[in-house]
Design goal:
With 470 residues, the chain is α+β, with helices and mostly antiparallel strands. It contains four helices and twelve strands, in the order ααααββββββββββββ.
């Protein structure tokens, strides 16, 4: 059996007038609420009703889909607690993601620090080696320079050995002595040439070593700067990790507290739902009793009319008894007594939420939004949709301030209308009102997300789509 619950909402968000109960503004749904209506459908309409509900389910499932239209059935306290829990869970997820990121970055920075230190040590070792080689090279260059200078001075002082040997030969020395002098001179020359080559090579190597030392020095300097920057990054990440860890721990506590609070308030809402269902059953039975009395009254009228017709045709002038259809419980409206077979719109405003089935994301059941919502500002005059009698007015946790009117027989049905989430009343219980008369002012009391009017129509005690009557 389909369970039917009230659901009133509007997208507008005007303030609630002071001095009136307000538990609305739901963001996450839990409680469906409250009751006027629905007793079990009569056997003659049960199959048709089930078919209509199934059709509505298919239609609404395709059109609504999301949670936007199903989050207006919770108390304000539970909605706020659920929103706080959602916010805490979102913040906790974000903080945990950031903590994971920071930990990854820190691990990378530490690995880079280790690698940089190793490269820096290697580069500094190479620099020390190059400096030592440069020092040795400079010493060798100085030695080579000294040898070359000494050779040059000897050459200048003693003259060319070849010329001296040739002069001795001309002066009659032994030719063999000349040959020995020439060989010796060649050896000395080769030795001096070797010294010159060594000098040149030392000078080249010295320059290369100087360039190598300069490059290594620049490389070490750059590596030291990079290592220092990475070290600063590592220290910053370590500090952020510590702060983020503390934040996550605090958010875990906040989320746990919010979850506990939401669970407690959800239990309160469910308990309230039980009370509302009992009230709904009571009101449904009352409206069905009214419908039964109206049908009985209509039957008596027909019988009296038939008797009167028979008496008239038989020559009797005796009229029938008066109708009891004007009893306080039936509303005294009779069959379209105010001259209408349809209902007038209670307010002039756009429709913000239609009659139909919705899926509640918390309770996981399909529920009926049992009326039509008109988006109007708080304080808008609400007018009777048809003539009738006010049978009840009161505050309900779900519907807020509400009026229930019995409008009599229309189209062969006992019609009742209800006006919900009102800010204040202008009529009394038992008072007869005419179509179009101001009976209240719109508001956002009860489970409501903003100023609007939740308007309901009941046929023989069962809710129907108001748009079929407007």
């Amino acid at each position: 059996m389909v369970r039917l619950f009230p659901l009133g909402r509007s997208r507008s968000r005007s303030a609630v007038p002071d001095g009136f109960p307000h538990r609305g503004q739901a963001l996450l749904a839990l409680l469906v609420a409250c009751g006027l209506v629905l007793a079990i459908a009569s056997p003659g309409t049960a199959d048709d009703q089930r078919d209509k509900v199934r059709e509505k389910q298919r239609d609404v499932a395709g059109k609504i889909g999301g949670a936007q239209q199903s989050l207006d059935q919770s108390s304000k306290q539970y909605a706020q607690a659920a929103a706080a829990l959602s916010s805490a869970q979102s913040s906790l997820a974000t903080a945990r993601t950031r903590l994971t990121t920071v930990r990854g970055q820190l691990a990378t920075a530490k690995a880079q620090d280790t690698a940089m230190q190793a490269r820096l040590v290697q580069a500094e070792g190479q620099l020390d080696g190059a400096r030592t080689a440069l020092k040795v090279g400079r010493k060798k260059l100085r030695t080579a320079e000294s040898d070359v200078k000494e050779f040059t001075l000897e050459s200048l002082q003693n003259g060319d050995p070849s010329l001296r040997a040739f002069s001795g030969l001309l002066q009659g020395e032994d030719p063999s002595s000349f040959t020995e002098q020439m060989v010796l001179s060649g050896s000395v020359g080769d030795a001096q040439l070797a010294k010159m080559d060594t000098f040149d090579a030392s000078r080249v190597m010295l320059k290369l070593n100087e360039e190598k030392v300069e490059k290594l020095r620049d490389s070490v300097k750059a590596q030291r700067v990079a290592a220092a920057e990475n070290l600063a990054t590592k220290e910053r990440l370590e500090a952020e990790q510590a702060a983020q860890t503390t934040k996550v721990a605090a958010l875990v506590g906040t989320a746990a507290q919010a979850e506990t609070s939401a669970a407690s308030l959800k239990a309160d809402d469910l308990a309230e739902l039980g009370r509302l269902e009992s009230e709904r059953s009571r009101l449904g039975n009352k409206l069905k009793a009214i419908a039964a009395r109206e049908r009985a009254a209509a039957a008596r009228k027909r019988a009296e009319a038939a008797a009167k017709k028979r008496n008239s045709s038989g020559g009797s002038g005796n009229g029938g008894g008066s109708s009891s259809g004007d009893s306080d419980d039936t509303g005294g409206a009779g069959d379209a007594a105010d001259g209408g077979g349809a209902l007038s719109r209670p307010v002039d405003g756009p429709i913000t939420s239609r009659y139909g089935m919705r899926f509640h994301p918390v309770l996981k059941v399909w529920k009926l939004h049992d009326g039509t919502d008109f988006g109007v500002p708080c304080g808008t005059p609400v007018r009777a949709a048809a003539g009738g009698r006010v049978i009840e007015k009161y505050f309900n946790a779900g519907y807020g301030n509400r009026i229930i009117m019995a409008n009599g027989q229309m189209r062969g049905k006992s019609i009742a209308t209800t006006y919900n989430h009102l800010s204040r009343f202008t009529v009394r219980v038992g008072e007869k009102v005419k179509r179009g008369e101001v009976i209240a002012y719109s508001g956002t009391t009860g489970y409501s997300t903003g100023c609007h009017l939740h308007f309901m129509v009941l046929e023989d005690g069962d809710t129907v789509n108001p748009m079929g009557w407007l």
